[in-house]
Amino acid sequence: MSVSAKICGLTTPEAVAEAVRHGADYLGFVFYPRSPRALSYEAAAQLAAVVPAGVKTVALFVDPSDADIAAALQAHAFDLLQLHGNETPERIAALRARFGRPVIKAIPVSGLEDIEKARQYIDVADMLLFDAKAPKSMADALPGGNGLSFDWELLASHWTSDKPWMLSGGLDADCLEDAVTTSGATRVDVSSGVEERPGIKSLAKIRAFLAVAARL
Ligand SMILES: O=C(O)c1ccccc1NCC(=O)[C@H](O)[C@H](O)COP(=O)(O)O
């Protein structure tokens, strides 16, 4: 059994092609202006246009307006929406209904209470993405893409729902096997761990990450 993989924060045609060639299942495009991976809708649409049908394109937002999502979907028919902010269950239900796209809801995790809080999204999101919550002391933290991990054991011990979920936060080719074995994840997501520096993906690290995912 291989583990499904999402490569997030892609910014160049070369990185998109490498991720597709080596078996990524999902490709994420970040629409959050403060991110070093942020793209315009037009730039992301150009990258996504060459992605083959079997690979899902994901448009990532933080507390978007309806107009933000409409503009992205007008530029390209992204397959899924990923919401990485403080979106409520009601907001997610409304966005799903309006835009007809499956929603991945990111859940920031630092402790057991965060796993419990995720339950409120089970009925409205199509998939959950458990990501590390940045500590308050990290002044320049983003809502995601910080290269931080959390205690993977929390998921194995406390997450009991059948709702599809992804493990995220601080993953790379070196820790992926341990992360998957410890958490029980069957889907994983990475950004910083396949980069040379923030916003610049490493083709070699993408290959190495996807090779581990494929053999797990
Ligand atoms: O990647 C970003 O810059 C980003 C900015 C704002 C919200 C979310 C963001 N990324 C979300 C992702 O899906 C990342 O892949 C996830 O947080 C894991 O990141 P990393 O720990 O760097 O692998």
Automatic annotation (TrEMBL):
Keywords: Amino-acid biosynthesis, Aromatic amino acid biosynthesis, Isomerase, Tryptophan biosynthesis. One of its GO terms (molecular function) is phosphoribosylanthranilate isomerase activity. Coiled coil: none annotated. Pathway: Amino-acid biosynthesis; L-tryptophan biosynthesis; L-tryptophan from chorismate: step 3/5. The keyword Secreted does not apply. Residues 5-210 form the N-(5'phosphoribosyl) anthranilate isomerase (PRAI) domain. GO terms for biological process: L-tryptophan biosynthetic process. It catalyses: N-(5-phospho-beta-D-ribosyl)anthranilate = 1-(2-carboxyphenylamino)-1-deoxy-D-ribulose 5-phosphate. InterPro entries: Aldolase_TIM, PRAI_dom, RibuloseP-bd_barrel, TrpF_fam. Its EC number is 5.3.1.24. SUPFAM superfamilies: Ribulose-phoshate binding barrel. Belongs to the TrpF family. This is N-(5'-phosphoribosyl)anthranilate isomerase. It comes from Govanella unica. The lineage of its organism: Bacteria, Pseudomonadati, Pseudomonadota, Alphaproteobacteria, Emcibacterales.
